[in-house]
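can u do me a favor
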């Protein structure tokens, strides 16, 4: 269903200047520091694309997933769905229209699925809640979903605990697809799985995207996995998007030193001149450094980096990065960049 103000050129989801501050879990009653989980993050998810989101543990990936799926209302900033402000929508519409359009797959299928319900009920539940079709149609849809994720029919009677980790994650994917969403957000969907089944789940997601024309936000701390799947990549560091663009550009012509360090730390097909080893811990999100948050670990950092978070530099193809001392452009892609506020 399309609203009157919707146009096909609007991205599916757009985040503008998103801040999420949590109350710190520690700190006692008198001193409640804020955790800066996301700071001024702007991104868009376009129809049919896979947007990869990468960064170290604690950088705000799951918080961003929760914002994109409407589970977390940002402290500041605007979330729009097909051009409409998500948090200005009446709550009922947010639940029905937006809720049905976005499916979520979490990291750990053993906690994401109700252990007391058989697979049949787990898959039927969203259809029941959204009162889709007749009862017979819903039963049929459940079988279709099972088929879509490559599980045999007898799984319907099983409890999650009777399935393998990979099978459970297939059930979680099927449940996310139940309402025919336009977007799937998958938050580290393979991190809790055995290495041997990870590729199967990744291939399932790629295959479903192709068959169903879905958009996907794929989150991982592993840049090589993200590079394998994504059309576009956003790199997160301590709550900030530090680089974003077409996957080939972000990985083949990375301009932010942090992206370069992530890529150089994992084996890849591309030859990198030297391995960059980052020293020191990720700073606390309760008290992030001034200016560029990466400067405390960056080999290029100087006083200029402490002054302010660097404005975006943008190449004509939309590749953007926030850095005072960016990596040199790849020779075959030397294009002038413009700086913006
Ligand atoms: N509910 C919460 N209360 C307090 N702090 C939180 C909460 N959720 C996340 N955080 C903090 O916010 C930061 C980002 O967390 P998260 O989005 O889970 O990162 P990631 O998924 O990249 O590991 C971390 O410092 C984390 O400890
Ligand atoms: Mg996470």
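np, heres the sequence
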């Amino acid at each position: 269903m399309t609203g009157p103000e919707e146009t096909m050129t609007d991205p599916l989801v757009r985040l503008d200047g998103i801040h999420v501050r949590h109350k710190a879990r520690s700190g006692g009653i008198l001193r409640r520091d804020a955790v800066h989980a996301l700071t001024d993050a702007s991104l868009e998810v376009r129809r049919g694309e896979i947007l990869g989101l990468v960064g170290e543990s604690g950088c705000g990936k799951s918080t961003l997933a929760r914002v994109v799926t409407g589970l977390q209302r940002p402290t500041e900033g605007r979330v729009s769905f097909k051009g409409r402000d998500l948090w200005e929508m009446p709550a009922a519409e947010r639940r029905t229209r937006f809720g049905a359009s976005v499916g979520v797959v979490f990291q750990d299928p053993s906690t994401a699925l109700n252990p007391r319900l058989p697979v049949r009920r787990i898959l039927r539940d969203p259809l029941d809640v959204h009162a889709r079709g007749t009862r017979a149609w819903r039963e049929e849809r459940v079988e279709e979903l099972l088929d879509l994720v490559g599980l045999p029919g007898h799984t319907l009677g099983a409890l999650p605990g009777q399935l393998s980790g990979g099978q459970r994650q297939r059930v979680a994917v099927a449940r996310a697809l139940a309402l025919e969403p336009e977007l799937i957000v998958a938050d580290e969907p393979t991190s809790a799985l055995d290495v041997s089944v990870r590729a199967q789940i990744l291939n399932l997601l790629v295959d479903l995207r192709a068959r169903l024309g879905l958009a996907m936000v794929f989150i991982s701390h592993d840049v090589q996995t993200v590079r394998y799947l994504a059309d576009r990549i956003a790199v997160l560091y301590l709550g900030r998007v530090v680089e974003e663009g077409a996957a080939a550009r972000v990985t083949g012509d990375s301009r932010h030193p942090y992206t370069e360090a992530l890529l150089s730390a994992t084996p890849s097909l591309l030859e990198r001149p030297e391995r960059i080893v980052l020293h020191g811990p990720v700073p606390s999100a309760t008290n992030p450094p001034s200016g560029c948050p990466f400067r405390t670990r960056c080999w290029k950092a100087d006083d200029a980096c402490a002054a302010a978070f660097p404005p975006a530099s943008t190449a004509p193809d939309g590749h953007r990065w926030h850095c005072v001392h960016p990596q040199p452009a790849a020779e075959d892609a030397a294009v002038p960049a413009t700086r913006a506020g």
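Residues 254-341 form one domain. hope that helps!!
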